[in-house]
Specification:
The protein is α+β, with helices and mostly antiparallel strands and 197 residues long. It has helices at residues 2-22, 34-37, 128-133, 137-148, 170-194; strands at 42-55, 58-70, 76-82, 96-105, 108-110, 118-119.
């Protein structure tokens, strides 16, 4: 009797444990259409150039934007993604994705794992998005090209702010002090010469 109760308890515990993990990721179902694409600020198709692993909960995937359907992006565009959340997937270098996202900052987006974003699978049988979304990868591209159109990417702008807060070398510091002292003496000499009281 005691062993039957123990077995029953063990199976009940195992059952509830498996249910909690089987329902871990449940994103709302979406349908391909204008109303769905209006929810996002940027939509593009791109290939992953590099992936930086998670630091402080976020990782970064750099995409080479191949086709831009909505929003503004440079040819190389960063997408931040959360790690360790329920629906998180892996970004791998060389993969092609259609990204639906919102901007985190002007030059990067934040991936929502429950968005319509989808990865391209060479083998169509592996594409689980087709069953979830009700359309295949090529139907998605066809809709985006026809209904949203293709847009130009922005030109790359060199970011000069990254060197702005660097400490000058000792030679640069001495040179700046010498020029400053020279300017002070010149100003003093000119003031004394032309403004006599």
């Amino acid at each position: 009797m005691k062993s039957n109760l123990l077995k029953l308890f063990f199976f009940a515990l195992l059952f509830f444990y498996s249910i909690s993990f089987s329902n871990a990721c449940q994103c709302p179902l979406t349908t391909l259409g204008k109303a769905e694409s209006d929810k996002y600020e940027i939509i593009f198709k791109g290939k992953i150039v590099s992936v930086t692993p998670c630091k402080n909960k976020f990782g970064v995937a750099v995409f080479e934007v191949q086709e831009l359907y909505k929003g503004n992006a440079t040819k190389q565009f960063k997408v931040l993604f959360e790690c360790g959340v329920e629906c998180a997937q892996e970004f791998n270098e060389g993969e092609e994705w259609i990204i639906y996202s919102k901007y985190k900052q002007v030059d990067k987006a934040l991936m929502d794992w429950c968005s319509r974003s989808r990865k391209f699978f060479k083998n169509a049988k592996e594409d689980f998005y087709t069953a979830t979304y009700g359309n295949d990868y090529y139907d998605e591209l066809k809709f985006l090209r026809q209904d949203l159109g293709l847009h130009r990417t922005l030109a790359e702008v060199k970011n000069y702010d990254e060197n702005r807060n660097q400490k000058p070398t000792s030679n640069q510091t001495i040179l700046m002090l010498a020029i400053s002292l020279g300017a002070i003496f010149l100003f003093y000499w000119l003031f004394k010469k032309y403004f006599k009281f």
